[in-house]
Amino acid sequence: MYINFWYPVCIADELTAVEPMRTKILGLHFVAFRDSDGAAHVLADTCIHRGGALGKGKIVDGNVECPYHGWQFDGSGSCTYIPFLENGSKMPARAKVDSYPVIERYGIVFAFLGDLPEEERVPLFEIPEWGREGWRENRLVKFELDGYYERSIENGVDPTHNQFVHPLQGNIKFIPEYLTVESDDWCTTVTTRMEPPKPGTVKLAHLRNDDDPENFGSSTGHYGPNTLITRINLSADNCFAQYFFEQPIDDSHTRIFFVNMRNCMLEPENDIRIEQINLAIADEDITLIAGLYPVRTPETTTKEILIKGDECIVGYREHLKGWEKRGWRIDLKTMRNTYGDVAYAIPSPGRRTQKNWVLDSVPLIQASS
Ligand code: FES
Ligand SMILES: [Fe+2]
After folding, report:
1. pLDDT (tens digit, 9 = 90+) per residue, 131-157?
2. Candidates 2.60.120.280, 3.40.309.10, 1.10.150.20, 2.102.10.10; CATH matching 5-120
3. Could you say which of 41, 227, 345, 347 would form a disulfide bridge with 223 (CB–CB 3.0 to 4.6 Å)?
4. What region does 185 belong to: left with phi over 0, alpha with psi -120 to 50, or beta?
């Protein structure tokens, strides 16, 4: 798992100015809430007094109040009120928690979990079809997976699993000669063509038997460590674009925020049917990923055999290696060894400009060249 990327925190509509929401991402807890103006905030969940869970507290005057002794924190993470501070005493300089940059988009609250200053941050992924004429989005759905998010991304960028894992799709075969893999700073994308389904094998309404193989293809890719992009082109006017914004809950559980766009069957009454199909397909992947052993990908490729169809997976892993070299990879072994004894926080941008933080910054694998 990596710091310095945008992670989905919650569905925007679920976040209110009435109650805080507590969620776990990258193995640590966060509290999300809205202030009196409706602006969303995401803070580290651990109260720096004596370890209360802010996400189990309440919202008072737009601040989040710890349930243990009532200390209050505003959206910037500063402590604004301590009930039993002696008269005339100043607020302790260290009375602050990490606060993370937030963007609300696609109906999701995203937080940048890391300490990079704004000009160095990777942009939040932009969905090209969002708001474009001729495209319609399905209701945003969220589901959980008993597995590690990197296994889920690798599954998504793997064109060779479809015909085995997704029989509902009519056992569509990809054509190996047309497989191409491209890469840039943040993504790797694999593009394939597929054999149109044979007559009588199609079980899904949106797959047709008469499509031209020239256009019958898909591309899948990752953006950063935790965004999965899938484009399925059945023909020019029959396309689906699917986006998984993945929230690594910890090193073996994942929550996925799924945005589905389409340029066909635009009538709203098709939404439910398409959602059902998508979730049935996702379910096939969930079942498969939950059975993978080991839970996380092995540290060395000698413990697997990778072949041509795994090229995009290799590209993904190379990107992850690059982010590890920058010093962004969380040191899970140290975290596990100190579990229960040390409270960590993902470092926020505030740590670059202010000193005196109560919580330890999460252990990271040292940057290397
Ligand atoms: S632990 Fe939060 S106020 Fe005491
Ligand atoms: Fe799949």
Report:
1. 999 999 998 999 999 999 999 999 999
2. 2.102.10.10
3. 227
4. alpha
Tens digits of residue pLDDT in 275-303: 998 999 999 999 999 999 999 999 888 99
CA distances from 146 to 11, 143, 255, 283, 288 (A): 20, 10, 9, 11, 10
- Decide if pLDDT at 214 tops 70: no
Distance CA 287, CA 253 (A): 13
| Measured distance CA(198)–CA(254) in Å, rounded | 35
DSSP designation for 343: -
Task: Tell which one of 71, 72, 81 to mutate to probe ligand 1, the residue whose CB is within 8 A of the most ligand atoms.
Answer: 71
Give the model's confidence band at 92: pLDDT under 50 very low, under 70 low, under 90 confident, else very high. very high
**Which tokens sit at 333?**
């072994």
List C-alpha distances in Å: 276 to 59, 222, 353. 37, 24, 48
In one-letter notation, the amino acid at residue 317 is R
Residues 226, 69: Cα–Cα separation, whole Å: 37
**Which ligand lies nearest the alpha carbon of 85?**
1
The full set of domain ranges for the chain reads 5-120, 136-320
Does domain 136-320 sit in CATH 3.90.380.10?
yes
Percent of the chain with pLDDT over 90: 79
The pTM of this model reads 0.94
Q: Which two tokens stand for residue 112?
A: 């940048």
* Any ligand 1 atom below 6 A from CB of 259: no
